[in-house]
From TrEMBL:
Superkingdom: Bacteria
Provenance organism: Sphingobacterium litopenaei
High-level lineage: Bacteria, Pseudomonadati, Bacteroidota, Sphingobacteriia, Sphingobacteriales
Protein name: DUF5673 domain-containing protein
Membrane-spanning parts: 6-23, 44-69, 84-104
Keyword list, A-Z: Membrane, Transmembrane, Transmembrane helix
C-alpha cells in the first residue's frame, strides 16, 4: 500500500469516528416543542454533505461549460464520455439535494402517546407507542425500524440528536423493545 492510500483510509476512519462521537455527544439534546412534544434533529453531516455535493456539482458544471464539453472527434468516445459526465453531474446534484432535504425536512416528533415521523419529502407517518411490537436495526443505513401491529413501520436514524431521550421514552412504554435495542447495539 502506498502512502496516499494509507492517508485516505485513515481520513475516512477519522471522519467516521467524528460523526459517531459527535452524534453520541449530542444524543441528549432534544428540542422541546409545545404541548409536551419533543423533536429529534438530523445530524449536521447531512447538511455538510449536501452542500459539498452541490458545490462539486456547480464546479464540475462550470468546468465543463468553460471547456466547451470538448472531448474527441470520435463519436463513440464522445458519447461515452458525455454520458459518464452527465451521470456524475446528475449523481452529485441528486445526492446534494436529497441530503439537504433530509437535514431540513426530516424529523421525528414524539410525546407520551405517539411518534410522528416526517420524511425528507414531508410525508408523515404516525404510530402509537402502545402499538409497537418489533424493532430491527439496519447497520448499513444506521437506522432503527419500528413496526406496529397494523404493519406500519417508521425508521429512525441512530444519528439523530436527542436519541437518548427518545430511547428513555421508549423504555417507559415498551421495556421489551428497549431490551431488544440494547442487544442490537452490541
Amino acid at each position: 500500500m502506498n502512502l496516499q492510500t494509507i492517508i485516505t483510509v485513515l481520513g475516512i476512519i477519522a471522519v467516521s469516528l467524528w460523526i459517531r462521537t459527535y452524534a453520541k455527544k449530542k444524543g441528549n439534546e432534544v428540542i422541546m416543542l409545545s404541548n409536551d412534544k419533543r423533536q429529534l434533529k438530523p445530524h449536521i453531516i447531512y447538511a455538510i454533505c449536501g452542500y459539498i455535493c452541490l458545490v462539486i456539482f456547480l464546479g464540475l458544471l462550470t468546468a465543463f461549460i468553460y471547456s466547451g464539453f470538448e472531448t474527441t472527434t470520435n463519436y463513440k468516445e464522445t458519447y461515452m464520455t458525455s454520458t459518464l459526465v452527465y451521470s456524475v453531474l446528475f449523481m452529485f446534484l441528486v445526492f446534494g439535494i436529497y441530503s439537504l432535504l433530509y437535514f431540513y425536512n426530516h424529523k421525528v416528533v414524539y410525546d407520551s402517546n405517539e411518534i410522528i415521523v416526517h420524511s425528507a419529502f414531508k410525508n408523515c407517518k404516525i404510530i402509537k407507542w402502545k402499538n409497537i411490537n418489533d424493532v430491527t436495526f439496519n447497520a448499513g443505513m444506521n437506522e432503527y425500524t419500528f413496526r406496529t401491529s397494523e404493519n406500519t413501520k417508521v425508521k429512525v436514524s441512530s444519528l439523530f440528536y436527542g436519541l437518548n431521550d427518545f430511547k428513555s421514552e421508549l423504555k417507559n412504554h415498551n421495556p421489551f423493545i428497549e431490551e431488544k435495542i440494547q442487544s442490537l447495539n452490541k
